[in-house]
Design a protein that fits this description.
10 strands
Length: about 350
């Protein structure tokens, strides 16, 4: 099992402090032999700029977008960006994509959140064609290229990425999206991944994988896992309560929230409804307090180092190939310490690749 670092996206605070912290963590992970570093985007900092900046200041670590938002870019623009980043980084880029949600897609990007599965399928088809330097002609309903009835010309991208087959990962939560991921992607970017609740998720991936035209070699399962070191598990859980409440309660509407649905499928329906009620009622502290300790402990690594070490094998047993660590600590040095600790614990558990 490999280790990755998830830097997330910039949040409120002094940007200069965030920049320095992100760079220090990426360089620490690079020096420790982490496989990959991942950068997200929502409606603030974008992932591409941050990854470009990290590419010039790291040496070996792979650079992944987790994710580039599908509604925010045309597939051709995404292919151009991916090829450029891959070239600048010497072949280290991993293209992670996701449809985001209806609130961000329609409220921020002005793109209707309709037919997300069909859109994703067509999007990936166009991106792969462009990255393969084919003449891009695509007759799809959502991304027809060239546009019919106009002067557009089918074009071939003028540069090529370093990697012959640049990997494309998808962020997926629901069963149908997981099937699509297993069918067309090279990896799965997971959130709130619980090894004990993962059998149905992996089954959905398998359904999609069975539909592939050719078998996938080395499909990568990459959950983002918060890591909080503290002698008391409940106290450690408090450090990620607000993060959990934001997604379960606020990353979507009452009618459509993929993370809420995931919590329900895991057996936390009553608690998820309470979290959502408080969050949508503008009571974020009460929402955070309503997140069950059991949910947090199932989807994060909490407690003293020995407990974290003993719980690592659960991920390998559940098919995880890259554990993407999100270090949670009050200081930068504390977060760097988490990265060092995880390297030692994975090795001590006999899980290092």
């Amino acid at each position: 099992m490999r280790l990755g670092l998830n830097l997330g996206y910039w949040s409120a605070g002094r940007a200069t402090d965030v920049v320095a912290g992100h760079l220090a963590l990426a360089q620490e992970a690079d020096s420790l032999g982490y496989e990959s570093v991942w950068v997200a985007e929502a409606y603030g900092s974008d992932s591409v700029t941050v990854l470009s900046w990290l590419a010039g200041q790291t040496e070996r670590i792979r650079l992944g977008s987790a994710v580039m938002q599908i509604p925010g870019r045309s597939p051709a623009m995404t292919a151009m960006t991916a090829a450029t980043l891959d070239t600048l980084s010497g072949g280290r880029f991993i293209l992670g994509l996701g449809v985001s949600g209806p609130q961000v897609s329609e409220g921020w990007h002005g793109v209707r959140f309709d037919a997300p599965l069909a859109r994703t399928r067509e999007y990936v088809e166009v991106v792969r064609m462009a990255l393969g330097r084919q003449v891009v002609e695509h007759p799809g309903r959502h991304y027809p290229l060239p546009l019919p009835g106009g002067p557009g010309k089918a074009l071939r991208m003028t540069i090529r990425p370093v990697q012959e087959q640049l990997p494309i990962y998808l962020a997926a939560v629901g069963p149908k999206n997981l099937e699509l991921t297993g069918e067309i992607a090279d990896g799965w970017l997971a959130i709130f991944f619980s090894p004990e609740h993962s059998a149905d998720l992996r089954e959905s991936l398998g359904v999609g994988s069975a539909r592939r035209a050719a078998p996938s070699a080395g499909f990568d399962i990459v959950p983002t896992v918060p890591v909080v070191v503290h002698d008391d598990v409940a106290t450690a859980a408090d450090a990620v309560r607000s993060y959990c409440a934001l997604y379960i309660g606020g990353m979507g509407s009452r009618q459509k929230n993929f993370y809420f649905d995931l919590a329900v499928r895991m057996g936390y329906e009553a608690a998820a409804r309470e979290v959502q009620d408080h969050f949508l009622g503008l009571e974020p502290r009460r929402a955070a307090a309503a997140v069950p300790l059991e949910f947090i402990d199932a989807t994060a690594l909490l407690g003293p180092p020995d407990r974290i070490r003993d719980r690592l094998a659960r991920y390998a047993d559940a098919g995880v190939t890259t554990l993407s660590v999100s270090p949670v600590a009050a200081t930068l040095e504390g977060r760097r310490g988490v990265l060092r600790m995880m390297t030692d614990l994975v090795a001590a558990a006999g899980l290092a690749e």
